[in-house]
Amino acid sequence: MVLMEHIYLGLTDHLSFAVKRHREILFSYLTCEAMSGVPASCKATAMGFFQAVYAVGMTVFPAITGALASKMGMRTGYMMLAAFSLLGWGVSFQHYKSWKKTGA
């Protein structure tokens, strides 16, 4: 039984490492994509806006999720985050598709 716990913890540790690396690479890629269509004269302002929107999400969503999880359970909190992630992906995908077609 102890061996299985060590194997589980080892796999969890490796999975956590892979998820963190994936998130770092994805954030760098998304930052580059967000800035790709911005004129050079506006890049600083666009980057500031991008970081501000990101910071709002980093501040607001943990508080909302914590309140929701304490009232309705952790599963509900995770499901809400998953729903918002899928919604964000869908909006981004549609915008990216239309941006590639029109170039703006």
From TrEMBL:
<feature type="transmembrane region" description="Helical">
    <location>
        <begin position="49"/>
        <end position="69"/>
    </location>
</feature>
<keyword id="KW-0812">Transmembrane</keyword>
<protein>
    <recommendedName>
        <fullName>MFS transporter</fullName>
    </recommendedName>
</protein>
<keyword id="KW-1133">Transmembrane helix</keyword>
<dbReference type="InterPro" id="IPR036259">
    <property type="entry name" value="MFS_trans_sf"/>
</dbReference>
<keyword id="KW-0472">Membrane</keyword>
<feature type="transmembrane region" description="Helical">
    <location>
        <begin position="76"/>
        <end position="96"/>
    </location>
</feature>
